Amino acid sequence: MSSVAVPFYQRRHKHFDQSYRNIQTRYVLEEYAARKAASRQAAYYESSGLGKTTCRLCARRARTLAHEAIQESRKRTHEQKSHASDEKRIRFASELSALEKEIHTARHRAREHLDKLAIQRMVEENMALERHAIEESISQAPEILVRLRSHTVWEKMSVSLCFTVQGFPTPVVQWYKNEELITPASDPVKYRIESKYGVHVLHINRADFDDSATYSAVATNVHGQASTNCAVAVRRFREGEEPHPAGIMPFHLPLSYDVCFTHIDVQFLEKFGVTFGTEGETLTLKCSMLITPDLKRLRPRAEWYRDDVLIKDSKWTKLYFGEGQAALSFTHLNKDDEGLYTLRMVTRGGVSEYSAYLFVRDADALIAGAPGAPMDVKCHDANRDYVIVTWKPPNTVNESPVIGYFVDKCEVGLENWVQCNDAPVKICKYPVTGLQEGRSYIFRVRAVNSSGISRPSRVSEPVAALDPVDLERTQTIHVDEGRKIVISKDDLEGDIQIPGPPTNVHASEISKTYVVLSWDPPVPRGREPLTYFVEKSMVGSGSWQRVNAQVAVKSPRYAVFDLAEGKSYVFRVLSANKHGISDPSEITNPIQPQDTVVVPSAPGRVVATRNTKTSVVVQWDKPKHEEDLYGYYIDYSVVGSNHWEPSNHKPIKYNRFVVHGLETGEQYVFRVKAVNAVGFSENSQESEAITVQAALTCPSYPHGITLLNCDGHSMTLGWKAPRYSGGSPVLGYYMDKREANHQNWHEVNSSLITRTIYTVEDLTEDAFYEFKVAAANLVGIGQPSDPSEHFKCKAWTMPEPGPAYDLTICEVRNTSLVLLWKAPVYEGKSPITGYLVDYKEVDTEDWITANEKPTSNRYFKVTDLHEGHTYVFKVRAVNDAGVGKSSEVSEPVLVEARPGTKEIFSGVDDEGNIYLAFECKEATDASHFAWGKSYEEIDDSDKFKIETEGYHSKLYFKNPDKSDLGTYSISVSDTDGVSSSFVMDDEELERLMALSNEIKNPTIPLKSELAYEVLEKGEVRFWIQAESLSPDSTFRFVINDKEVENSDRHKINCDRSNGIIEMVMDRFTIDNEGTYTVQIQDGKAKNQSSLVLIGDAFKAVLAESELQRKEFLRKQGPHFSEFLYWEVTEECEVLLGCKVANTKKETVFKWYMDGSGIDTDEVPDLQKGECHLSIPRLSRKDEGVYKATLSDDRGHDVSTLELSGKVYDDIILALSAVSGKSASPLKILCTEEGIRLQCFLKYYNEEMKINWSHRESKISSGEKMKIGGGEDIAWLQICEPTEKDKGNYTFEIFGDKESYKRTLDLSGQAFDDAYAEFQRLKAAAFAEKNRGKVIGGLPDVVTIMDGKTLNLTCTVFGNPDPEVVWFKNDKAFELNEHYAFSLEQGKYASLTIKGVTSEDSGKYSIHVKNKYGGETVDVTVSVYRHGEKMPEIKPGQLAKPRPIPPSEEVLKLEGEARSKK
Asked: What element of type H or E holds 1103?
């Protein structure tokens, strides 16, 4: 047993250890082992050879030994059992003794416990009686000591509402929001309630807009109840740093589970604000921070998010965190990067975050007017050869609408972009087919409008052309030692040859231009690679058409194009492999191509509300049908400009947005449009105009609490108003006080204090007090000021004056500023005589007195300050007793003029009234323009009039005179100290009064009288220009004594800056004849001018207007910017040309001649803007009327050119000029007829004007002299030349401006040589004519069977009659009975071979010759035996003769004979 005592209530259980050390169990095991040993020994003897011996003695001995062994075992077992029984008795006795002892101890302890309970119950009863008596004496209903205070907080800040209550019994407190009970259990993250020592607190975590409400706390006990309430207003920050700069909706960014293991405090120092970038730029968002403690090994983690998506390092974004700074860099901005960026610093203690919006504008278009690039290109449903590409459309505000998109693809690793679609796709989705299996692709998209093509979008993420089902068809089995077996379903399907048909064929996507079919692969599919064929059938046609007959589909997806609109189709799919094609799948239900997603409806009412000085919150009602929306685009426009600009360049999904980058004080209107894959909705209605100002908030805290006087029982305190009133005037102040070393604050006033000075009564003399002040406006109560220093309530009795207060610094410029203050409340023993102004630079010790002598004014201009340095100031009052207490030191002031600082300027209005004016765009509705003279507020209504409208304010002088000289100032409250001053001296007052006198007594000088001009559209513009016009000038147009108002027909406009007044008449007709007059009035000045358009003057204007209108209408569609014209090229081709404009891809251009179309080899490229028609060799057949036409869906235009008459003659002259420039020198060519003079030209036509002359005498074409030419040659033929034909020959061709001559001297040796050549050629021609010839009749090959008779016959000619000789194999043969020949009538020659044999095969020749020559003709004879196949020969071919030239002597003699003749 264990030595540890086991409690009695566990004694009934058995407890064993792992090795079974219980004694009884050990005995049982030992007995079992002994029995087993004995049985094994007995079995051994029985199985051994001893058991089978024939010796009985041995057998008896064996049995005896076995019996003894059994007896010994039984004895040993009995002894073991006896020992176990003794042990068991001893153990039971000891356990029983321990149990009795434990029961006795338990009874003793129970008795002691009951005694203690009885004593405690008696004491509690006595205490309850005493407590009841005390409670009866001190009972009271709940009383609230410190009530709830209203709070205004920024969004995402936490707020705590607390109050103090006393009462007995302790009151039970319940919290209500807008009279609804708050239960922290319903939202433990939002609410937390604490109650300690009578102080009850409601914590509201990360307040949002919905937490703006009235909160109440009700304390209740048996004697009654008490309540208090307050208002909580949750606002947005004013300075551009707001909880949700995007203005969309708060994002719930996911927290990472990897949290740092220490509590680290992160405080953001310099933060990135709302940022504007342009596509293609590089940009970095930075945020510096203070990390406490800054541990190198345990640092917070910086996470960047864009629109709720975690950003990681990529090609486009680079992250950095270190040295107290987190940065996000963009290597190449795209509109995809636009969105709400959030930096989250994750620590164990929580998350610190900051957000701001990044706007990315479109880069400048490559083509003017082209749209911006699409964005957010993504790939879906990728397969072996198919993927769907989607994108979001760009916002088009000032560009023409997008008409479609081009999708480009590029294989990863290459730079060869290929356009996927021939025609622009109209929706933001396109199925791309034809991908190469196993390769990766990236995609981009370009938008197209009427002006051109946009820049390409950012490329998509790479996508691989793989079938995702392939992974599902394999199974991996892991075995021992890390090995694995991969099994494919193809291996389990058996030996499948032809695959089965696909299943589940359906339309996964339906569009107006295509239908995407999807199906499941066949099961079983076989091991061979699968392809698919898609077939379609129009419903009711009964015929099937294969869609992809040329290209097999590898993916179970296919996009079917070229479907008829309005028709229904059914589809089926067949699967195929190398073994064959499956049966068709089941037929789909009828499918009609149509857009399943329609253009969204326009958003509803648009409401714009104030946010910050440069932003506006825009909200709108969602469209009625908001399914499949990509989001919204918001546009804004300055009121009156009618020029819209996009606010966001990437669709936002929420119906609330903050438009940033606006100008403070300017008025804007807004509109919204929804966008989906099909396109844009109509623009919503414009919002109401709103002025950009900060939203209404609670005022900021007051500051500078100063003790102004004390009489021992009261204190007079002064303070400075809040720097910002929250956009609404400050209604008053609440003040709290408390004695030194006290914790609780007590209200001083229950009603508002309307001034910045207040006397606190009922104070304890010589006690120390501190105070704090909170300002209130219409929104609520702002944050209280910091507690003042401790003021002692002791009466002031010093003779010097008290401190001046309410120090105000204004008119801060680069080297000066003006200091204002209020007089001390406590003057001392004598009146105040002046003030001393002291200043010093921050961080220095020595004060400098700005004025040597005290100034009696309560303002002072401090000069000679250093620009860019920071100063503080104080004022001391002076009386006869000396210098009094110093005022509170002012806040540090940086001496530097603010950018855009404006000054007061003077002027005279149209009525001649003199005024001072000031403009402050930073002014809000709560701002007050305070005019002063000598820095005292002006309240004299008899001499001055103040008019303030928006951010403009004017001070008018009613009766200006010398008394108005002096310094005038203005300050604008609720701004960052905007103020200015103006010195009205004698010179300035005289100038203004002289100008006022001119205005009150005035004509308006004109630069130009009323005139007209006809504009491009046929509009007629009447205009007049004055020397100058004021903004308040008026005018009117009068036509025929009737005033004309501004309308669509008469557009009247006035450019007062240039003094131009104009009226544009949209349609000038016959009814507009008459007199036109303009009357102008500028203040009291007037003038007018008239223009008379009657008779011929009116007709000329009307005709010009009609002409311009027709031209304008023509140019709205495709048109000819330059009509048909002709020109001649250097190659003497005639080009008909024209220039075209305003064409597009669908524009059709055609050529016509005499009404018939002309087919051209090349389609003209209209994008080049020029079209040409070439006429290579102009002739009379090319005469006619040529016409060029342009047409498309926008219109039609025609240009005509009549190529005949004078036009034809002019072209011939131009051709003559080009040809004449390139004419070759005259050359001599001898012929059998005579001598030919020829000139080679690029072009020759009989229509051309040419002239041949001999010895300066013009040659006319006749029998002796023949004139002619070809396409590129002109010649003069001199027939049978003689001595008279010698001399100079001139060829002249006449161009349009000049003529071109070529000359040749045909005399002397040139003539002799030419004449000799002529004679030779003439004789050769005669010999050729009369020589011996074989006219015809002989074939080149003759095939004949042996034994037949062959007859070769031909006709011969010659003068004189020729000699005829026959040859066989070029040898003459003798005549005999076998060979015979004849010559009949001197012209019919024949050769006869009787009974031909194979020996007669060979070449036979006939030789025909006379004195002028002759020729030889060869005939091949082929003899074949009877029964042999007849050789194939080409029929119908005659033998070719070989000429035999005449002898030179014959030619010479013949030539001499002819020359003599």
From this structure: helix 1096-1114
Is the confidence at residue 6, as pLDDT, over 70? Answer: no
* pLDDT, position 8: 38
Quick one: CA torsion of 775, 781, 783, 787, rounded to 10 degrees? Answer: 50
Q: Are 516 and 506 in contact (CB under 8 A)?
A: no
CA 1320, chain centre distance (Å): 88
- Provide the token pair at 242: 């707001």
Report the distance separating Cα 212 and Cα 189, nearest Å. Answer: 17
Whole-angstrom Cα distance, residue 1207 to residue 953? 76
CA distance 1324 to 315: 90
**E strand or H helix at 356, and its extent?**
strand 350-361
**C-alpha dihedral sign at 493, 494, 495, 500:** negative
Mean pLDDT over 942-962 rounds to 88
Work out the percent of the chain whose per-residue pLDDT is above 90.
26
Beta strand 859-862 pairing with 893-894: unpaired
Distance CA 848, CA 1111 (A): 80
Give the burial string for 583-610 (b: 16+ CB within 10 Å, else e).
ebbeebeebebeeebebbebbeebebeb
For residue 242, the tally of other CB atoms under 10 A from its CB is: 26
Give me the mean pLDDT over the 600-616 stretch: 90
Torsion angle of the four alpha carbons 783, 789, 792, 798, in this order, in degrees rounded to the nearest 10: -110
Output DSSP code: residue 1400.
G
**How many percent of the chain have pLDDT more than 70?**
88
Segment holding 1316, helix H or strand E: helix 1309-1330
- Selected residue with higher pLDDT from 358 and 498: 358
Compute how many other C-beta atoms are within 10 angstroms of the C-beta atom of residue 643: 9
Q: What is the CA radius of gyration of the chain?
A: 59
CA torsion sign for 728, 730, 736, 737 is positive
DSSP letter string over 401-469?
Answer: PP-EEEEEEEETT----EE--SS-BSSSEEEEE-PPTT-EEEEEEEEE-SS-B-PPPPPPPPEE---TH
The secondary structure of 632-689 as a DSSP string is EEEEEEETTT--EEES-SS-BSSSEEEEPSPPTT-EEEEEEEEEESS-B-PPPPPPPP
Task: Round to whole Å and give the CA distance between 133 and 127.
Answer: 10
How far apart CA 417 and CA 423 sit, in angstroms, is 17
What span, in angstroms and rounded, lies between the C-alpha atoms of 1078 and 1004? 13
Beta-strand ranges (E) seen in 155-254 are 159-168, 172-177, 180-181, 191-196, 199-204, 213-221, 224-235
What the block records as the tokens of 1035 is 């005018």
Question: What average pLDDT does this structure show over 345-360?
Answer: 86
What own/partner pairs with CB < 8 Å and gap ≥ 24 does 195-199 have? Answer: 198/145, 198/164, 198/165, 198/166, 199/162, 199/163, 199/164
pTM of full prediction above 0.70:
no
First-to-final CA distance of the chain: 170
Query: Looking at the DSSP assignment, which residues form a beta bridge with residue 196?
Result: 199
Is there a contact between 970 and 932 (Cβ–Cβ < 8 Å)?
A: yes
pLDDT in the model for residue 462: 92
